[in-house]
């Protein structure tokens, strides 16, 4: 019983006494509160907006106002430390990197116009775009680039992007010519420019702190200005007139609205409140197949990691049997709604410049599974995070359907799955399903398979693989790269430290009045490029 | 000071509270109000202190790490530890709690880990929004429940009564998020009269703000409507069975006046306890409804804070929510005293 809430006993019947002025006043006051407060309530700080409900398009000039939905960002809004996609989106609209990638993985010059490697393959020289400025009017200089990468790779850096440069980038310094920057490498790395397209690498003015509340002073050299950020509600952007390619940024404004989940975003799209929605299976079923869609862009893979030091996965035949038991086409269709490509347990995304050859594409083969297991029935538990529960359930059903496996699931919330400590489930459970963003093939080797690597959930170790990967990084000869890629992929395919059923891509459903497509998927490596996009 | 009768036992669904007694009407009302306020003034800080301790401690023991939440899975354990240190999250829990408490009492509520903004501004802004939504829902709920309850009581046992009973119980059995989604599908998607996202722009006028809040307010009101209407119905039936009602009828008073002046007031006394409880609930933020409609209220803010172990934001928000709920209950008790002067609170008589 709440001590503050005293309920009186039922009154005995008696005639009510005449109301007093005091009682009338208090009761009248109580009943008038709703009207007063509702009429006078304030909904947070920010400028007066013009967006009304029920329509995303607006604005008076040619480009209009583009609206989209995001989940509330999970991380601190600072380009150095952003770690979730929603926060990256906010940052990526306002700031810009040296290089980005197009929808097919090709390199696109942004704040850099050229990049070349020295004869010894240890120094990359980047030429900055002449005349590029930050949105506060100051020029983007070599010192800013140096300061940005020094912050990212410093000993006390908090940036999640630091891992991409570990053991690769030694120092960064202004180059010999005006507007040039030199990246001195610790070892030859032929794909180094691709690392400059990764998250946390947008260029910020020298002196910017990774501890700062960046959104309070959102300086960057990107396509838009952040004009209003309201926690729990959304963000408003206006076109950056100082952007180096401002002529091709046709939108006047861009509004981001925060929604609780994908269902809410779908409803908002149906109601015309936003101009795009992620084309997941539910969305496509609801809206029908005849909707306008953007070109896909590869984003991630969801890998089944098997700890090779723990039974039954110490036996490579068990790992191979798991890989042969999966119906990958069904996974692509059911789990990813066809927004994925069948993979073959080698970590080369389909849009990567070098594609390994000579491998048999694995398909569901029950006879092969039985042959590899020699009639044994193998039992184990797959541990995963709740966001990957659907994939985990499909994998469980497919494995158990072979009759050779007895698979149980342990699905954990994100905070528990990625918890810190030596016994963190995602790195210590014998079989896990974890998603990894698109990276370079050699990054996967160094971060997932290298001996003692921090994220080596498979506890896999193969010096030959690491050696081949280092050779691959060091060479720019196309023939050598192809040969090394074939050998690396063959090892990954044969040893199966991780089963990779599919490479997932993202696709958007666009409102009918959205003209032009995006140059790449909306992701960090694509630079959140809204050039040429407009509303009719 | 008047003497009071022994406390009546509380019946099912009816009134009866700790220390509440019924006595003869008479003077001393202001003294009773003063005593009630004094008692609450002592109890309230103690309860809020306990709430804050529990909240602060519970955040520490649930899984998850603020640094990991902020930096994501690809940050190293060393980076996560460093982030926690920089944000003052690595000291003893008791020391950090006392530091928060001192700041809270002096107006410095700290900085939100998730939103990188002052906790106080976040909480107070969201509280204002939740108050607005809660009062709007309350303004919809109470009159409707009164009307329905009185209609049911006056048509007791008839088809209207049975139909309303079935309808109200059916509606109350449907979860808020289902009701909300259905309303969104019909009134935001099929006929776009209301927005899917109920987040207003800062420049929205009062009418636009009311329009934005309508769907979530309706969902909140509907969720509580059945119980409140049943309480009104039961109270009205009891009052209509009383001798004073028969006397009023025999005097030839018009039916409307009989209900307004004689029945309703007596019928409302037991209903007030439920109304008070609902008022506190509505004003403290409704997490499910706010989240569903993307309404920037305190409930949704606390969900976000709990999800990311934002300890300063969560503790401050919970304390403020608790304070609002307790004040709403205190207001209810004061209204009790004014409506029914026979009521006593506390152990003394």
Q: Report how far the terminal alpha carbons of chain B are from each other.
A: 9 Å
Q: Which term fits the overall shape of chain B?
A: globular
- Domain count of chain A: 3
Instruction: Look up the CATH topology of the largest domain in chain A.
Output: Dipeptide-binding Protein, domain 3
Count of individual beta strands of chain A: 22
- So how many helices of chain A? 16
pLDDT below 50 for ≥5 consecutive residues: which ranges of chain B? 1-26
Classified by CATH, the class of the largest domain in chain A is Alpha Beta
How many domains in all of chain B? 2
CATH architecture of the largest domain in chain B: Orthogonal Bundle
GO cellular component, one term (chain B): plasma membrane
Protein name (chain B): Peptide/nickel transport system permease protein
Transmembrane segments (chain B): 37-59, 131-151, 163-189, 209-229, 267-293, 313-339
Membrane topology (chain B): Multi-pass membrane protein
Short description:
The complex is a heterodimer of chains A (536) and B (349). Chain A is α+β, with helices and mostly antiparallel strands and 536 residues long. Chain A has 16 helices and 22 strands.
Furnish the topology, listing elements before pairings:
The complex is a heterodimer of chains A (about 525) and B (about 350).
Chain A: H1 21-40, E1 65-70, H2 85-94, E2 99-101, E3 107-109, E4 112-117, E5 123-128, H3 142-153, H4 162-165, E6 169-174, E7 180-185, H5 192-195, E8 224-230, E9 234-239, E10 253-258, H6 262-270, E11 276-278, H7 281-287, E12 292-293, E13 297-306, H8 316-325, H9 328-334, E14 340-342, H10 366-373, E15 378-385, H11 389-401, E16 405-412, H12 414-417, H13 425-428, E17 431-437, H14 441-449, H15 463-474, H16 478-495, E18 498-499, E19 502-506, E20 508-510, E21 514-515, E22 534-535
Parallel strand pairs in A: 1-10, 15-16, 15-17
Antiparallel strand pairs in A: 2-3, 4-5, 5-7, 6-7, 8-9, 9-10, 11-20, 12-20, 13-17, 13-18, 13-19, 14-19, 21-22
Helix pairs in contact in A: 8-10, 14-15, 15-16
Chain B: E1 21-22, H1 29-61, H2 66-71, H3 77-86, H4 93-105, H5 119-154, H6 159-173, H7 176-190, H8 206-240, H9 243-250, H10 255-283, H11 287-292, H12 298-307, H13 311-339, E2 343-344
Antiparallel strand pairs in B: 1-2
